[in-house]
Amino acid sequence: RSFQQDNVALSAGIIYPLSEKVVIALSYQRAYDYNVNWPFAVLTSTDSSSVLQTFDLFNNINVDAILPSVSFRFGSLSVGASVNIFNVKYKSAFPITNFEWNDTLGLPAYQMEYDMDAWSFGFNAGLMYDISEDLRLGAFVRSSFSADLKGSVKSELLSSIDSVSAQSEVTTSFEYPWVFGAGLLYKISTDWIVNLDFQYSLFGSSSESLIMNYSDPGWSTKNFQTDPLTGVNPSNILLAFEDAFDAGVGLEYMFTDWSLRSGYRFSQSQNNDASYNFLFPTVNQHWISLGLG
Fold first, then answer.
1. Rounded to two decimals, what is the model's pTM?
2. Averaged over 204-231, what is the pLDDT?
């Protein structure tokens, strides 16, 4: 299959009014979801032999958020804030070339895999203004955060070629930028509500790369290079993100005490052509959502 990746994320929440003017809530949602998955095979030949190898080549960065929040209402104006508890997961796999294979050492290429996670914190703040009974406008800001990822890396390349352990502990730092957004809610009729929203993410201000720090001395002294197959340097994975925007539209149909929701969202890629590689292609995303509440 192509670089398209089918992905399903779940969200849930509860709301409790303390009074007519104060509401508290607790929710869980996917705050950031980056998934790329390629089929990948390498055929390497010499005058006397050929080797066909297949590899996993994927890149997943998922940020799940737990959001305890509170809002206050002052007439037609509501203001709210939440503490964001983030769980960041980074999983990546790709082939790396064995530059010593021409010296009949090992295989032409080897699988390499990262598996890391971390917890981090941030905040949201927002406001909503009722222009009329049928029309509401809102705006929000979400703070940036930095997560110190920790986990493992493994590859048989080092054990086969350099007599080093095939696995090492590894750390790196992942930055998520400030996000600003606005939206409106319009009640078309007693049964139908339409929602429009827009957000702008300052990815251009985040770190340029994921610099990997290995605990094993054999890994830390290995001179990794940018791979000619994938364009990836395993120890310094290039990001070079640009600012990006999201835009969405939603419809809600209310019946009895329940409502049925559906929506479409477009997410512009923060990647750019200059920094393209297989882990971070310039891929825009289209989201379709359904909900019942």
1. 0.83
2. 91
- The DSSP secondary structure of 7-49, one letter per residue, reads -----EEEEEESSSSEEEEEEEEEEEEEEEEEEEEEEEE-SS-
Contacts of 82 (CB under 8 A, 6+ apart): 67, 68, 69, 70, 123, 124
Dist CA 110 CA 227 (whole Å): 12
Lookup: tokens for 12: 């849930």
Kindly give the pairing relationship between strand 213-214 and strand 167-176: antiparallel
Cβ neighbors of 269 (< 8 A, separation 6 or more) are 244, 281, 282, 283, 284, 285
- Tracing tokens 């929506």 back to the chain, one arrives at 263
Token digits of residue 30: 């996917």
Q: 103 in helix, strand or coil? A: helix
Task: Work out the pLDDT band at 103, boundaries 50, 70, 90.
Answer: low
Query: Exposed, middle or buried: residue 149 (CB in 10 Å: 0-12, 13-18, 19+)?
Result: buried
> Which residues, at least 6 apart from 111, have a Cβ–Cβ distance to it below 8 Å?
55, 56, 93, 94, 95, 96, 155, 156
